[in-house]
Amino acid sequence: MSKQEDVTTPTQSEAVTFLEVKVPEANRSIFPDGIKTSGQHAPIEQHLRGFEEFPKVISGRTAWKAEKLSANPQKWIHHLTHEELTELGLASDRFLQSGEKLTSINKQMCPILETWREECIDGKGFVLFKGLPVGSWGRIKAAVAFMGLSCYFGNLITMNAEGLLLGHITDQGHDPNQLENVKISRTNAPQLFHTDECDIVGLLCLAKAKEGGLSTVVSAHTVWNALIQRNIEAAKTLAAPIWYVDRKGEQSAGEKEWIKTPVFLLERGTKGRVYVKWDKSFVTTLARFSDKGILPSLSSAQISAMNVLEKTCQELALHMELEVGDIQMCSCVSVLHARSGFIDQAPPAPPRHLFRTWIATQESEGGWKLPYHDSNHPKRGGNQKDDTAPIAEPLIVA
Q1: Rounded CA gap, 218 and 92, in Å?
Q2: Which of 164, 193, 271, 390 has minimal Cβ neighbours within 10 Å of its Cβ?
Q3: Cβ atoms of residues 204 and 224 within 8 Å
């Protein structure tokens, strides 16, 4: 196929399968809204498409180029207005006065930002909001405002086995060479290009590093176009369902310790957009299983494709430095993101610190039609271990 629109229309039975699946109510004493995060799942095999069905050229808003956006920052940067900050601030104050837990925050407290929500889901895939007054509001109110704004883009989902709805991205002193047990976001090491296990990831900058910590994004569709033009064998390898992804112990009882998936997949339905799911640090750690013959080792073609993908992302990326009070919302469907390594300031200056949210946008609320059984789950994706309760602690790093 040469055009991304030329994809088979889903059957009526498929629509029923994905849109009418009922989500069982979870224990409300653990999950305030009665819904728990779905977690990670392998794609449904019958909905995977072969490389020959992938578009050979992707055009439109999703296939943006860094040099054009660098020259036109107004297309992806929004300075929060006085009216928006007033509305968000008052809503945050009301929430704090209610005494409710932060895990019950919802989108009703957020200003209307529909243009930017649509841009994150169906357009460029990211936006940078500037001007949240972290210093004068303090971290608790800033967390409430950030989580409320995140909820406007979808539902908050838990991001690890501890049940975090509000993550802390800061150097916690972990060894980045022990990735079987450590997530690299908890270190000061560079993060290669990747996606998180959600539809949209949100970041709020609380404190900058002394050096480094640069945020970088790249269009997965621009990367795909480059792969097709320059190294079609790498593209074929990345689109093949031969990649094992580590769960790193964040699966529920009875689930496998890994998932088998392509890196690039096709959305179901008439749009048939190319969707990316990738994190090298969750692929290479599975050597503990391949060394025992439980899983196949990475082939030379896979190793080459990984290197080609990272090099291509680096070449085509847009760089930005997050300032205190900046909020970045970034698609994990059509955009890959990365972070440079960093050095913190010497005490008593605060270390680099960002709040993070993971956001799910289900099909019925405008989310992509993904080839997973939970595609229309209100809290699709994320990480959920058994019945671990969601938590959000602005002042406790976890």
Answers
A1: 33
A2: 271
A3: no
